[in-house]
Amino acid sequence: MVNGKKILIVGLANKYSIAAAIAASLHEHGAIVGYSYQNERFEKFINEFSSNNGGGLTFKCDLSSDKEIKGLVNFFAEEWGEIDGIVHSVGFAPSDQIAGNIEDCITREGFAITHDISSYSFAGLIKEAVPFFSENASALTLTYVGSQEATPNYNVMGMAKASLEASVRYFSATLGSKGIRVNSISAGPIKTLAASGIKGFKSMLNKHGSETPLRRNITAKEVGDTATFLLSDMSSGITGQTIYVDGGYNIQAMKFD
Ligand code: NAD
Ligand code: 0WE
């Protein structure tokens, strides 16, 4: 499906990261995978993970810096010649922004940081990569239904995800003529390390699992395999979309017994 495609993965932090499952699926299906990581703290893990998954290149990049985004894209463009795909699996809000009622915790600075890292970073990355994308390249980001419907505590992350999903539509509209596709996967809750730091995440996970049509939580592997599909030519007719990998949760207005 993605045999020989050169795909950059941004947002791998540890073995629980959704990006880890995406990388594993891409590698399993023959892709050449490269990684960027946020800072030195992740270096050892990334190098280890990479050598167990095809031994692709790794590069440090803090997405809050335009200079580092440029450096990242230029590094892979030079090493690979062209880029066939990018996976953006990044989200961040200061922890005080995603705990409690929005009117009690939202701040101008919290809003700015959350939108910068969770939404602009995707736009900045794609913008820099455009000159190096191959024909039929595919870009992908990760989102959550809290962008569309209010979710307790998700708060400003929901606003940033709404912005991210709109960004996917705008980039897909103008990059389509170059053959470049841009989509997002809206995943149901998954117990990643970031998520397990969130108060009440376990009960949210259980509630989601019992209320969703499939009556179980989705796995990171299911997201990984959908990502492989969206990065492959099998999905050549799909762009600008938010693809839900959530066991069907989003199609219900009320829980069925
Ligand atoms: P994760 O913590 O494993 O991944 C988040 C990544 O963002 C980390 O690799 C971190 O290093 C990176 N990051 C944060 N700030 C950065 C910066 N300034 N520069 C570079 N990298 C930075 O958690 P995850 O759950 O795998 O999240 C990945 C994506 O999936 C996020 O967009 C998240 O919103 C989305 N998502 C998660 C869930 C869930 O339940 N876990 C559900 C739906 C969508
Ligand atoms: O997008 C996310 C979470 C992303 C996230 C996680 C953290 C934890 C550590 C962003 N910023 C931070 N900041 C930190 O300091 N998800 C979709 C998972 C998630 O997070 C929630 C959820 C769900 C689901 C937060 C509140 C309510 C629901």
From TrEMBL:
Positions of substrate binding: 93
GO MF annotation list: enoyl-[acyl-carrier-protein] reductase (NADH) activity
Catalysed reactions, semicolon-separated: a 2,3-saturated acyl-[ACP] + NAD(+) = a (2E)-enoyl-[ACP] + NADH + H(+)
Entry-linked Pfam families: adh_short_C2
Listed EC numbers: 1.3.1.9
Keyword Lipid biosynthesis annotated: yes
Keyword annotations of the record: Fatty acid biosynthesis, Fatty acid metabolism, Lipid biosynthesis, Lipid metabolism, NAD, Oxidoreductase
Family: Belongs to the short-chain dehydrogenases/reductases (SDR) family. FabI subfamily.
Protein name: Enoyl-[acyl-carrier-protein] reductase [NADH]
Naturally occurring in which organism (per UniProt): SAR86 cluster bacterium
